[in-house]
Amino acid sequence: MRVLITAGGTSEKIDNVRSITNHSTGRLGCLIAEKFLNRQVTVDYVTTAQAKHPVENKYLHSYEIASTQELTQQLQQLLQKNQYSAVIHSMAVSDFTPAQTFSQENFLEEINHLFKEKNRPLDKEDLAQLTTTTTSDEKKISSDTEQLYLVLEKTPKVIQLIKQIQPETLLVGFKLLVDVSKQSLIATARESMKNNQADYILANDLAKITEEQHIGYFIDRKGQILGEKHTKEDLAILIAETILSQNASSYRR
């Protein structure tokens, strides 16, 4: 049996010394990996340098990435090379990545030039032209500028690649919202599972995650809640045991 696990959070470069990232520690993904490793399951573990890593193990193969683009490339390589019983995608992937940066002076200069050229109110197509045709060679943005204008563009949904490449693998997705009702959280998680062709999804709320507590709801493809757990340890056990049981059942058939 071989599983692929992603954990931690991606980081998107603004320049060579600055980046946009998130607060994901990778602790839950690490615990899930350890549950499989304890059962002598081969684990391909894709993570970041800052995230929690499992203890070295002969069944463990670790791969470090930083950005969403690097994650996409790494997953494509692994999914095309290996056959996985399950893919557990717990990594917090950036929804946006920097497309362009402007100092206050450069932003005004570019906007004024574009406005003069068009001789009319600017629309979203004009702004798209501004962000795609203007390039910056700065390796480090000067700290002298009073204001910095940062244009972000949407990143592709990495999770959707998984079933495209390996439609038969069991896919576990994760949905994190902030301070919402349980009903809203579950409904959003079910919709995410449908959109991404996931077989299971863990729904959790950042407002209910602390150092000692992690409330999560594990949901199957029928939309049923298989379990509600209150710690990372218990969530990791539930996820790993569900996948192991499903794999054993499939093997017997």
From TrEMBL:
Which Pfam families does the UniProt record give?
Answer: DFP (PF04127)
Q: Which GO terms describe its biological process?
A: coenzyme A biosynthetic process
State the source organism's domain of life. Bacteria
Q: GO molecular function, one example?
A: ligase activity
List the NCBIfam families hit by this protein, alphabetically: coaB_strep
Give the species.
Answer: Tetragenococcus osmophilus
Which Gene3D superfamilies would you find in this protein's record? CoaB-like
Protein's UniProt name? Phosphopantothenate--cysteine ligase
SUPFAM superfamilies named in the record = CoaB-like
User: Which keywords belong to this entry?
Assistant: Ligase
User: Record's InterPro entries?
Assistant: CoaB-like_sf, CoaB_strep, DNA/pantothenate-metab_flavo_C
Q: For the DNA/pantothenate metabolism flavoprotein C-terminal domain, which residue ranges apply?
A: 2-104, 135-244
